[in-house]
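User: Can you predict the 3D structure for this chain?
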Amino acid sequence: MMDRDQLLEDHEQLQAAFQDLLEQARINQQIMQRHQAFDIRLLDADGFPDLLDILLNGMLESFDLQSNNLFLYDTKHDIRHILSQLKVHPEQIPRLHFLDYREQLGPDLATLRKPALAAYDAVRHQGFFPGETPPASVAVLPLLRQHEPIGFLALGSAVAKRFSAHLATDFIERLASFIAICIENVINNERLKQVGLTDPLTGVSNRRYIEQRLLAELNQAQRQQSQLSCLYIDIDFFKKINDSVGHQAGDEVLCEVANRIKQHLRINDALARFGGEEFIVLLMQTGHAAALQIAERIRGGIASQPIAYKGASKSGSGKLHSSVSIGVATVEPSMRDAAPALMHQLIAQSDKALYQAKQNGRNRVVSDTQLKG
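Assistant: Here is the predicted structure, written as structure tokens:
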């Protein structure tokens, strides 16, 4: 028969083991609550930039990570275009990276469909943590949609045993799946928004977008007491282009003019097709003298090189010289009218300047101040 002391010792061991289990259950409950709260934050993300902030900053705290990096396939630069339309430059999100082809991070990733957990290895993992202090252990999560990766999430921990190859990956796999769904949904939502705000021919913004943007920028300019300039651009003799080489070639000219205009704009400027062969450019925090210089560079960039077109058939291809006339107007900090009134005034003044440019012989830039002289 077991003596009393042995029974007491066994009982204390069981009690200690039970307390350890309770403590682990409490810790697991806290972890689950943090993860559930993180999931809710992802679902409540207010647009693409907010989702990226939650993934790349909120995740560090929620999961007690040393580092994390998000890699997204963007072979046609669609995602980068969305960020540009949202006035977000990729350099503002240093741990967001874009992949232009499948094997960019290594040949093994092309077939990776399950999370890969391991101790950090410089040869295998350096590309996942560029320019950072190497973590002790890493988890590479493929973000799958329709069984194909849309990107990868690389997690780094300062704890060597945090991500070990022998650990089960069920939970982290579920997390990756949830994140992939959120990323795809928010990108699709942004695309749907932009369909209604984008000119389908040239790919630049449309009139509806530029008017909304102009109101927002005018309100901001008034708050910051800054200048804002508008360029009203019209392709010279565009009807003759359509009549002489056809409407398809005319469409190609429109697209090329839009591309050449974009080459002279900054990330925070805005370009829209305003109607027909007319474009509007908004130059943020730009005074009148600088706006005239930009307008002149745009005019010269279009007039200096002929535009190639294919036309309706191979026999219809060729090159033609085109030019634009540009009217320039600027909102000064001293203008205190309400934003809607200022918007109409700015467009009207730049339109009058454009009309004067055409009257003066086309292929030129005219300032609205010249109309007042």
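The chain has eleven helices and twelve strands. The mean pLDDT is 87.
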